[in-house]
Amino acid sequence: MNSNDVKLLQSMRSNPSLTITLPTHRTSPDNKQDPIRVKNLVTAAANRLTGTYGKRTVEPILRRLEALAGDIDYRYTLDGLAMFVNQDTSFMFMVPFALKERVVVDETFYTRDLVYALNRTPRYWVLALSEKPTRLFEATRETLQEIQTGGFPMTHLGPGGARGIPNDPAINQSAYRDEHHRIFFRQVDEAFAPFMAGDPLPLALIGVDRYLAFFREVSKHHDAIVATLTGNYDTFTAHDLGRLIWPLVETNLQHRSQQVLRELEVAVGGQRYCSTLGEVWRFAHEGRIATLLVEEDYHQPALVDESSQRLIFIDEPTTPAALDDAVDEVIAVVIDRGGKVVFVPNGSLQAHQRIAAILRY
Question: Which of 181, 210, 214, 324 is least crowded, fewest Cβ atoms below 10 Å from its Cβ?
Answer without folding.
Answer: 210
